[in-house]
Design a protein that fits this description.
Elements lengths: L1 H11 L7 E5 L4 E8 L4 H5 L4 H17 L2 E8 L1
């Protein structure tokens, strides 16, 4: 799951070398933290949050394979 989100984030951002994705595991749910450059934060969130919501939809669809819930957090460095 981390590789999928990292690939998507690097394709969206202007500074793909600064993109880092980290998974914070839990028993039934995990948090996916996407750290991006401050200039790329707006691109990751998108207008009215549409880009972030689309990424969350992809995560939701893939989560059935792992039988685990995932939460996406976008963080600017």
């Amino acid at each position: 799951m981390v590789n999928l989100i990292e690939t998507i984030a690097k394709a969206i951002c202007d500074n793909p070398e600064k993109v880092k994705v980290r998974e914070i595991p839990g028993e039934t749910a995990s948090i996916l933290e996407v750290c991006v450059d401050k200039g790329d934060l707006g691109k990751m969130i998108g207008k009215h949050g549409h880009t972030a919501q689309s990424i969350r939809n992809i995560i939701y669809a893939c989560s059935f394979k792992f039988k685990k819930r995932y939460t996406l957090e976008v963080i600017a460095k």
